[in-house]
Amino acid sequence: MERFLNRPSLNNNTRCPQKRIKLQSDERTKPCEVDEEDEVSHPVPWQKIESEGLDCDYALLLSKDEADHMFKLLEEEVVYSTGEDAKVQVFGKVHSIPRKQATYGDAGLTYTYSGVTRLARPWTPSLEYIRDVVTKTTGQTFNFVLVNRYKDGQDHMGEHRDDEKELDPLCPIASVSLGAARDLIFRHRDARGKRSRRHIEPVKLELAHGSLLLMNSPTNTFWYHSLPVRKKISLPRINLTFRRILRDRKK
Hints:
- Helix content is 13%, strand content 37%.
- It has 251 residues and is mainly β.
- The protein is globular.
């Protein structure tokens, strides 16, 4: 039986300060700005998610209005991969990605996963802004983001680990969800498949609109995660996974 974790309680006492987003009327030219003089403390209540080798933190980062606004801007700004760039290699075979995908980050950065290497496009205003909000909330810096867009519940992501050597092992992967709520399922590496060596219950978390999930070390060493098909979901979702890539560990 899976362990199901709901969104965090607002009574959680573990908090981290963050600037509150101020929505702008000109959405096409400016994402969101904060007037330093009018800055308001916007505490984030965290929920700790733990199991054997699993260490995550989950919180609602943005209000509904803030999340709606950022979703609209990303729909206008993000350019997704097409053609051969929209395919990956799995066990030596080439497959089309069952969702839209894009990569953004600092100049010259590339990220290799699933047998392909992606070059980072320059940060868009909204991606840069969300990155900075995550940095102010977590104290971590990020130089790359993988963007996944799911048109509905048919689009999905298979089981995998984000354990590439070029990722900074000291930096968590920060996952921001916008749009339709979807289930993320963690499965321990020793409890996968019919020949699993151990019985360890999967952990299921519903990723809400405007939420932030931190996957801390050593989560991606021991646990796979996936976003399964959910046929009843008809609305789109955008997920941003911010990472820190070490240039001197590039292949």
